[in-house]
Request: fold
Amino acid sequence: MSVEKAARREIEKKDEESRGITAEEKEDYIDERTAYRNEYDEKLEKQITTDELTGLANRHGFMNELERTLESMRQPRSPLSEERRSKEQVAPALEEFSLLFINLDNFKRINDALGHDAGDNALIRFAEILKKSIRKGSIEARLHGDEFAVFLPRTGEAAATAAAENVLKNLESDPELNKFGVSASIGVRHVDTSNLTEEMTSKSLTDEADMQQLKAKKGGKGRVEVYA
Reply:
């Protein structure tokens, strides 16, 4: 520390003492401010990445998580023994994931018949069905309008397809949405370390899953199509 800084710090210390502020109190104050700032940052991040209507992730949050996953999977990894991994509580490296791209079929019927408030309630209802249908640890998102997506970490193609079929089954059994003929067309895109390329981005992968969703819709709606 320079002489000038030391002198200034001495003056500050005397000022704090004259005001009755002890070093412990100052440290407590700094800790409180840090905790407040961290809490504020967390709330702001959640607000930025959450869909206000459904409480699911929004497009921004979903795409950011997908980009982080792709970047992580591209990083070289040093092998760890099972004993060391267990001792250090290190989670296994992510080697695969799947995406679901979902578009509701016949959703416009609700807006046309009952108005946009009823349409919003239907979207909230579908978000609840989606969360119930997908295992914990996944990320469900509302991308735009009646478009939804799901990020399924450590999930192979067969398991992702089964999850998509479960969404369709639960949606079909919902009396409120079923009476308007609302179903869903779902596209599945699986990625693992064997087919991961530098060209893959969050946008390219969701676009590919979306193309399968469109294929499912053109094939009769209420169906699942898998990227090949």
